[in-house]
Amino acid sequence: MARVVSLYLPTWPTDRLRRKAGVTAPPPETPLVLVMRTGNRRLVSAADASAQAAGLRVGMAAAKAQALVPDLILQDADPIADAEALERLAAWMLRFAPVVSADPPDGIVVDTAGADHLHGGEAAMLDGLVGRLAMSGVAARAAIADTWGAAHALARFGDKEDALAPVAHDRTLLRGLPLEALRLAGPLAADLRLLGFRTVGDLVDQPRAPLTLRFGPEIARRIEQMLGLLAEPIEAIRPDDLIEVRRLFAEPIGAAETIARYIGKLVVQLCERLEEQGLGARRLDLICQRVDNRPQAVRVSLAMPARDVRRMTRLLCDKIETIAPGWGIEVMTLAATVAEPLEHRQMMSSLVEESLPDITGLIDVLANRVGERALYRVAPVASDVPERSLMRVAATAPDSGASWPGHWPRPARLLPRPEPVETVALLPDHPPVSFTWRGVRRRVRRADGPERVFGEWWMRDAELVAVRDYFQCEDEAGERYWLYRAGDGEHAETGSHRWFLHGVFG
């Protein structure tokens, strides 16, 4: 099932201008509009959020806008620069999915089939897309649906900033949207409103023939594209420096064995191209163009730059089951969308030194099955506070040289956050005699401690005198727990003196 993301950039021209200006850009709270000359008139062609909040709209006369907002900043519009920057942004979006295209004048469309699991699912991917743009100073709304038309409509006219339509959704999700959600030309939408049509549902319920006879085929085409009854191919953007190879077939192919055979041939050709430039692939995109013009995309990532034909072929062939050939595949394209310099390492003799086992192949297989975010290592951080003493790093990240503290043992598993427990304990330095956790009372048979952990005053002022006393406690069943008391047991300013369970040993 195809899944398409539509990104709507409501203030793209002004956002682009602010990004280009950098530190010299006007403050975000200062209204900014772009004007364009139409005949003898100067009209507002774009307005940022502050200008819109002040009542300015696209199409308004520039003189009227200046009269309404005295401190307004006016600059000349540059549609060509906007379109070029949108193309560059679409090329940057290739890191999220193999099939990306600009959707002028203010959008980007992404076919995410086969790539969403690499980003933690569709919801996490949408959040990452919008969040990355927001950090770059670009306002965005996003929606994902089964078709380009539906995602485009929900992104621009939906109730949520990141709409997530269910798989195989029906037309009821779109019925209440205005006519403009169908991507109809302005005059055509105005004519339909004169006839009493207001929403998408009003048109979907009408017979197609009378509408086509009076208004032409555009209305029926847009409705069928939105509902998935008519294919709407996405013309994927291809950067000029992209390393890719292509295979065209005189007769369409569809068998999994045939697809696998040609994947192997494409990988050999791609590795030859990579070797010519001294590069190794970090990400591979396989795009299979079907005879019905519906692309099927497969994306795999590699932990380290590589030109290993066998490994790359295996990773791609593991994804063949996600390719739906339909009536056949007529074009296969394999691209190294991320390539980095590949350093040759001299093989050392075992008489000189022991070579370390190479586990990057295993990491590649696991990461492409469960997603890169789900595969990581835990590295130590120089902090006595347990929840701050570790961080996630990439599975292939180099060793930082930091080590774990060895003076006190640490539990194998920390809870996501400390959970309060009811205890019986003698203050100030004695361990609990018993504690109740999650409704179960446990009697302590052995205990060790306290290990005092002080707050990190340089992090925040509230930790200046904060104290935790940690105890290792073993119950009658032999289970070992890590508990702490907030405070030193004597002074109220050091903590609440409540008890918490923070981890479990074993």
TrEMBL record:
SUPFAM superfamilies: DNA/RNA polymerases. Residues 32-151 form the UmuC domain. Keywords: DNA damage, Transferase. GO terms for biological process: DNA repair. It comes from the Bacteria. Its EC number is 2.7.7.7. Residues 246-324 form the DNA polymerase Y-family little finger domain. Monomer. This is DNA-directed DNA polymerase. It comes from Xaviernesmea oryzae. The lineage of its organism: Bacteria, Pseudomonadati, Pseudomonadota, Alphaproteobacteria, Hyphomicrobiales.
